[in-house]
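Apologies for my clumsy wording, but could you write out the amino acids of a protein and the tokens describing how it folds?
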Amino acid sequence: MTVITDEGHAPEDPTQIVPAVAPTGGLAEIRADGVSAWFGTHKVLDRVSLTMPAGRVTSLIGPSGCGKSTFLRILNRMHELIPSASLAGEVLLDGQDIYDPSRKLTDARRSIGMVFQKPNPFPAMSIEENVLAGLKLTGTRIDKDAREELVESCLTKGGLWKEVKDRLDAPGGGLSGGQQQRLCIARSLAIKPRVLLMDEPCSALDPTSTRVIEETMLELAQEVTIVIVTHNMQQAARVSSQCAFFLAAQGTPGVIVEHGDTEAMFGSPQDPRTSDYVNGRFG
């Protein structure tokens, strides 16, 4: 069992982009094994185990306060950056524990990207500079042709290229909310992650922007494993092939009540609490 605390770690900006080397091979499975988490003495997750298959979209659903977003942040070692935070258990990326003491924090970030609930482009940077920001942070140099190819590729995968190709020097902060979120997706893709975590990426967007983001997710799942937190049951049904339902009874830490094929969980859940939640009877 691996136990991680904030002791001995220098404070870091949790939104910092850490660039990646090229993926070492194909799609990646990520698995949590017996993960528990605390903030101080307050336990927020209890022995959560979940396999998120390679090349698929896994949705994490459940009412507010059940530990979904905490679990998501544990998957790329953001949890340990919070003062007083600790955890037990393992998070395995293709069988390798990302919390192994011999493994650097940046190693996990190289393979596991994150898109946050609120779009966070660098407002003083151009659209092109936002996409390339991760490369600049480590001083990685690529020639002009390769840079242009990377920008076009990432913006295309992010579903934004056609809308911005003639104004790449415009400020990223000047885009609409939906476009900013797609720019953040493109920025994450530039570091070549094997897993992409998305924390309610559409909660602040209009229906049209949400549809575009969902289409982007489905296309990206062909080359990167995606894990998404969402409170939108219709969205979970549309984009994910696997689903996990989190729940925390009053005064107790969050647990996974049920997980499995999304269509089966929504159509014939095995636990009555799952049925109540997906059918809108609470939450």
Notes: The first helix runs from residue 68 to 74. Residues 1-24 have pLDDT under 50 and may be disordered. The first strand starts at residue 2 and ends at 5.
